[in-house]
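Researcher: Here's my situation. A collaborator sent me these components and asked whether they could plausibly form a single complex. I don't have experimental data yet, so a predicted model of the whole assembly would be a useful starting point for our discussion.
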Amino acid sequence: NRENFLHAERLHVMSELAASVSHEIRNPLTVTNGFLQLLKGSKTVTSDEKMYIDYSLKELERAEQIVSDFLAFAKPQSKNMVYSNLHEEFVYVKNILMPFARMNQVDIKCAFSNTLNLKYDKNQMQQSLLNLFKNGIESMKEKSGTLQIEVYDLEQNIIITVKDSGVGMTNEEIQKLGKPYYSTKKEGTGLGMLMVYGTISKVKGKIDVESKKGVGTTFTITIPV
Ligand code: ADP
Ligand code: MG
């Protein structure tokens, strides 16, 4: 339908744009970073000036983060598509996020079935799962909780559910998921869910969101095998 078409078109334009601009922006960021580091090492810099330099370096780091989120999203698709077991990606991402979860008093519980073979872009899938799990953990950081992840195959589909008992979303907020730069977080880039929607649409999957403010959120992703 039209809504889906517009969404796909938006993703396409975004990824084209991201690919061409990201590389160009990275160079000046690197150069500026280098000169600021030099300046910081100078003996004549006052402590106030050093503070300004540190702020600038921090902001550069943020810009760098935005560019890498963009680049990950823009990576050319078909040549990175491989036939693989999704199980590997879940284990990898879970391990990466363990320290972050522990820091926020969040447990991660996973349940898998064995055969989760599919053709997908490994890098993008890892990034997307990372974004999804990270959002879940971040939603629970004020009250601790458990991130419940289930992956199983059912009638020619792979079903992924990611459930948190975090802050939850209103219907209006759910509608905004995947819009570039939509974020309610102080340090958010608002590119995580864009990446998730992009990756899942590439494998012809769909995403259902069920959420209640103050109760939690469940993402259900269905991918045809
Ligand atoms: P970011 O995490 O950088 O803010 P995302 O695209 O990953 O950007 O998410 C966009 C917004 O969607 C978040 O800022 C948050 O408001 C909302 N969101 C995403 N996942 C969840 C979740 N599991 N629980 C509650 N809100 C969520
Ligand atoms: Mg996020």
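Model: Some features of this prediction you could bring to your collaborator: The first strand starts at residue 81 and ends at 85. The helical segments are 2-40, 47-74, 86-103, 122-139, 171-176, 192-202.
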